[in-house]
Design goal:
10 helices, alpha/beta, about 325 residues
Length: about 325
C-alpha cells in the first residue's frame, strides 16, 4: 500500500528511450537526448528489479519505451521475467512497427498482452502524426492476433484538428477485429504548450462524436487490464471503447496502482510528477544486495503523490521516451 491506501502492484519498465517514430504528442521536435548504452539498465538488472518487485507483491509488469522492440534482447528479458515466482502477467506497449517479426517469439517467451498505438487509418495522416509507416503497424496487429496473445488493445491519443475524423473508422476497425479501442486525452509529456485549445480534445467530445453514430452503453464492471479506462459498448457496431481522461476526469488518480522504472534506472512513482529515485546506482554499487533494492522500491511507493500535476502548468523535465510510456 502507498501512503494513501492504494494497492501498488503494477510496474511499467522502460527498456529503452529510443524510438523509431516521432509522435507529435510524445516527442519534442528535434529531440535527440538519447541515453548512452551504458546508461540503460542491462537485461539482468531489469530482471533483478522485477524479481525484487515481485517479492514485494507486484504482480503485473509492462515493458515500454521509447519503442521496446528496438531493444535486441527484449525477448530474452520477457522470458527471464516470466520465470519469476509471483509474476502473473507481462504486457508490452508498442507502436507495432516491429511486431510482425517478433510477435511469435514474444508470445512463446511468456508475453501475455500487447497494447498497440494506432492514431489514424489514413497512411499520410498517420505519417504526419507519427513519422511512421501505417502498413508496418497493421502487419504488427495481424501478427499479434495470429500469435494468440491473451489480449490485444489499440491505443489512440486524441488530437483536435488531427485525428478526430479518424475516430469512427478506428471504431469500425476495432469492431471488425474484435479489439478494444482506448481513446486517450493528450497530456503534457512533451511540453505544457501541447495543451492548447487547438490541440486538446477531451474524452467528453470524443464520446459526443461517437454518440452521433451509435449508442454508448456503460460497462462499469468491465476491466481489461489494470489501467484507468472507463469502457463503453457501442450497441450497433459491437465495438468496446475505453476512455482515459487524465486531464478532465475528477479523481483520475484515486485508484492508481502503478509505478515506473525508466530505461536509465530511475524509479518514478508518478508519470505526472518530477519525483524520481536513483535505482541504477544502487544496482551497480559493489556489494549491494536485494534488500537495498527492496527498500528503495518501498520508499518510492511511499513518495507516490495523491494525484498527478498535469493540470498545474506542468513542465516535463524530460519527455515521454525518456520516462517510459
Amino acid at each position: 500500500m502507498d501512503s494513501f491506501g492504494r494497492k501498488i502492484d503494477y510496474l511499467r519498465i522502460s527498456v529503452t528511450d529510443r524510438c523509431n517514430e516521432r509522435c507529435l504528442y510524445c516527442m519534442p521536435e528535434g529531440y535527440r537526448g538519447w541515453e548512452r548504452g551504458p546508461d540503460h539498465l542491462a537485461a539482468d538488472e531489469i530482471v533483478r528489479v522485477a524479481r525484487v518487485a515481485a517479492g514485494l507483491g507486484f504482480r503485473k509488469f509492462r515493458l515500454t519505451g521509447g519503442e521496446p522492440l528496438l531493444r535486441p534482447d527484449v525477448t530474452g528479458i520477457v522470458g527471464a521475467m516470466a520465470k519469476i515466482p509471483g509474476v502473473e502477467c507481462i504486457g508490452l506497449s508498442t507502436n507495432g512497427t516491429r511486431l510482425a517479426a517478433l510477435a511469435s517469439a514474444l508470445r512463446s517467451g511468456g508475453l501475455r498482452t500487447v497494447n498497440i498505438s494506432l492514431v489514424a487509418l489514413e497512411s499520410e495522416l498517420y505519417r504526419r502524426i507519427t513519422g511512421g509507416d501505417l502498413n508496418l503497424v497493421l502487419a504488427g496487429i495481424r501478427a499479434a492476433l495470429a500469435a494468440g496473445f491473451e489480449r490485444v488493445k489499440l491505443n489512440c491519443v486524441l488530437m483536435r484538428g488531427m485525428n478526430e475524423r479518424q475516430l469512427w473508422p478506428l471504431v469500425l476497425f476495432a469492431a471488425e477485429h474484435g479489439l478494444p479501442l482506448r481513446l486517450i486525452e493528450l497530456m503534457p509529456v512533451t511540453s505544457a504548450e501541447v495543451l492548447t485549445e487547438e490541440n486538446f480534445m477531451p474524452v467528453s467530445d470524443a464520446m459526443h462524436l461517437l454518440r452521433t453514430r451509435d449508442e454508448l452503453i456503460p460497462q462499469p464492471d468491465r476491466m481489461l487490464g489494470w489501467g484507468p479506462a472507463k469502457y463503453y459498448l457501442l450497441r450497433h457496431t459491437g465495438a468496446l471503447v475505453g476512455f482515459i481522461g487524465a486531464m478532465t476526469r475528477p479523481h483520475f488518480c484515486a485508484t492508481c496502482n502503478k509505478m515506473r522504472l525508466t530505461a536509465d534506472g530511475k524509479v518514478r512513482p508518478c508519470l505526472g510528477d518530477h519525483g524520481e529515485l536513483d535505482l541504477r546506482t544502487v544496482l551497480r554499487r559493489a556489494g549491494s544486495d536485494d534488500e537495498i533494492v527492496r527498500e528503495l522500491l518501498l520508499e518510492a511507493m511511499q513518495r507516490k503523490p495523491l494525484e498527478h500535476r498535469f493540470r498545474a502548468a506542468f513542465q516535463p523535465c524530460r519527455p515521454m521516451p525518456a520516462i517510459g510510456g
